[in-house]
Amino acid sequence: MDTITMEKRSEGVKAKHLRRAGIVPCCVYGGELPGSLSIQMDQKTAGKLLREKRVGSKVQLKVGEQLIVTQIKEYTKCFASSGIEHISFQALDAGQKVNSVTHILLKNADTVTGVLEKLLLEIPYASYPKDMLDTVTVDLEGMPVGTVLTVGDIPEFGSGQIELQVEADSIVLRINDRRRATTPAASE
Q1: If you placed Cys at 85, which of 1, 11, 47, 76 could pair as Cys (CB 3.0 to 4.6 Å)?
Q2: Do strands 3-8 and 58-63 pair parallel, antiparallel, or not at all (unpaired)?
Q3: Residue 52's Cα: distance from chain center in Å?
Q4: Is 99 a residue whose pLDDT tops 50?
Q5: Which of 93, 76, 96 has its CA nearest to residue 84?
Q6: Please, which residues have CB within 8 angstroms of residue 78's CB and are 6 or more apart in sequence?
Q7: Buried (b) or exposed (e) across 27-58, using 16+ Cβ within 10 A?
Q8: What is the per-residue pLDDT across 23-57, written as a single tens digit (0 to 9) for each?
């Protein structure tokens, strides 16, 4: 698990002044914290974090001497500058289940001979922090036309440690025949 060093945010400085100075305001809430904690990190570190991790990823924050195990709950970006405006972290309690989302990564998608339809690439679930899944990789190499992959077909979701918040028969992806996918509908 990655550890990111953060600083406590000064209560007297407004968020827009921090952003102008290249600092991203953040907050941590939940878990065993008595209240929310206002923190900050520089824009470069925040950019690197969100390139490597995503919403639902587990991250350890070091604030002063305190270590807090968290998950990235949400973030906002400025549309004009593409800069990160704010990141929210949820502190995790080892003895309490947490709602999260795992991301499906597709490997060898370029080898698929048919048309690949991606239907559900974020799977919501609940688990204890030690059992959290950040990503699940599905290798598409050798999958024939006509393949339909459901959430229940993915072994990582079959363990008793993960409580799915979607039906196990929900379709993650399917591979269709090129001819059928490009043929105009008969009603047109």
Answers
A1: 76
A2: parallel
A3: 10
A4: yes
A5: 76
A6: 84, 85
A7: bbebbeeeeebebbbebeebeebbeebbbbbb
A8: 999 999 988 888 889 999 999 999 999 999 989 99
Alpha carbon distance, N-terminus to C-terminus of the chain: 53
What string of DSSP letters covers 15-61? HHHHHHTTEEEEEEESTT-SS-EEEEEEHHHHHHHHHH--TT-EEEE
- State yes or no: pLDDT of 123 exceeds 50: yes
Tell me what percent of the residues of the chain surpass a pLDDT of 90.
57
Rounded-to-integer distance, Cα 92 and Cα 132, Å = 11
167: left (phi over 0), alpha (psi -120 to 50) or beta: beta
Rounded Cα gap, residues 67 and 3, in angstroms = 9
Is the Cβ–Cβ distance between 56 and 117 less than 8 Å? Answer: no
Q: So what's the pLDDT on residue 1?
A: 60
**pTM higher than 0.85 for the full model?**
no
Say which residue the tokens 């593409």 belong to: 82
